[in-house]
Amino acid sequence: MEESPATGKGRPTPTRKEAEAAAKARAKPPRTRRGQAAAQRGVKGESSQRVRQGMRNGEEKYLLPRDKGPVRRFIRDFVDSRFSFIELIIPLLVVTMVLGYSDNATLASAGNAILFGSILLVIVDMVMLRFRLRRQLAARFPDQPVKGTTYYAVTRAMQMKFMRLPKPQVKIGQELPEHYR
């Protein structure tokens, strides 16, 4: 004979007496201070984990007030969809450190030139980001104030992509949606 695939929940239904005893045990508060603190930590940990995951995923209700709204969402997507030179700054800093510790004065000055050149490139990139962002905001959100948007965009662009919160929702070069309402 062939066995049929398992159906149901895989365990017997508890009797009413067992179900009531289990509910009573769950509702019973811990007796000691240490037990109460442990229970509170457990509840708080689950709650904060849920909030952190919601923030990572960009769910509106879990975002901080500075990240809420369609304008801020557009700014995040705008910054995340473009390549930023700030992402190259960490490897360049490592190279300049190695060159700076060398005994050769020519290599040390080359390291300084690379460092100052990369800082200048980042500043130019941030200025261009500001002008392009302001143009896009004026076109997409003509009735919204733009106060604080440059600071928000620059601080997001200065973070490495994998460290940004909420996590990037778009890839580099991806077209942005027309409406963010």
Your description of this structure?
- The protein is mainly α.
- It folds into two domains: 33-62; 65-163.
- The chain contains six helices and no strands.
- The protein has helices at 16-27, 33-57, 70-80, 89-100, 105-140, 149-157.
- It is elongated, with a radius of gyration of 27 Å.
- The termini are far apart.
User: How many domain modules?
Assistant: 2
| Cα-atom radius of gyration | 27 Å
**Quaternary assembly:** single chain
The helix tally amounts to 6
Strand share of the residues? under 5%
Largest sheet, strands/sense/barrel: none
Summarize the helix and strand pattern as letters: HHHHHH
| Mean residue pLDDT | 87
First-to-last CA distance:
60 Å
Helical coverage, percent range? 55-70%
Low-confidence stretches: none
What would you call the structural class? mainly alpha
Principal-axes geometry comes out as elongated
Number of DSSP E strands:
0
What structural keywords apply?
58% helix, 2 domains, 181 residues, single chain, 6 helices
Topology:
Blueprint: H1 16-27, H2 33-57, H3 70-80, H4 89-100, H5 105-140, H6 149-157
Helix pairs in contact: 3-6, 4-5, 5-6
Provide a compact summary of the structure.
This protein has six helices and no strands. It is mainly alpha-helical.
